[in-house]
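FORM 7B: Structural annotation worksheet

SECTION A. Query
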Amino acid sequence: MPLLEVRGLTKVFGRLVALSGVDLIVGENEFRGLIGPNGSGKSTLLKCVAGAEMATEGTIRFGGRDVTIDTPTRRARAGISLKFQMTSVLPALTVYDNVLLAMQARSPIPRLIFSRTRGPLHERIMHTLEQFRLAQHSTKQAAVLSHGQQQWLEIAMALACKPRLLLLDEPTAGMSLEERRITGEIKRHCSLVIVEHDLDFIRNICDILTVLDQGKVIDSGTVRYIQSSRKVQEVYLIRV
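SECTION B. Predicted structure
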């Protein structure tokens, strides 16, 4: 049984058809890349899966359960985590507290009121920061981090609640070459669907690529297959 199964997904904004009959299947521990020209519907697809946008038509199943009309909160509790293209860290808080708040998101209110979560979460927080090379910045305000480090922090926050599926929208945008290299070294934590324009980066970490154009799936397959796909070549020659 696939972890994520999207069937016939359509999203319409007024007269604009952003997605048209999209099918997407993602397995457990799979890294899936979404590529395609600007405006092809990649970010909209991630938002529909996470519940940030509601599908006009089609179905979304996660872990064998229909989540098509579930709220973003219910989907997050089921194990779907989304990192948007723009960073949304809390700049006035420390790096440590940003991750703490993300981990506390699923804690019962009484435990939060009586501050019973900070201590037990300390080791997890520091381990997470170490994985993203942020431990030495734990007491700094998030605002002083570089753009790339803020991207790492937000990915760390997205992984804080141990999701089964992480959705990343252009995580390396604005990063230096070295920051992109380090990002690519991040070990697999869960299944991943990633939108990325850096083709060198995405082909190094993804198992399968799906190509979108004008809201439709053009082709899907291994990196080697997509590189030789005539359909994909036509899209990039004509549209990019």
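SECTION C. Observations
Residues 151 and 171 are 6 Å apart (CA to CA). The chain has ten helices and ten strands.

SECTION D. Sign-off
Analyst initials: ____
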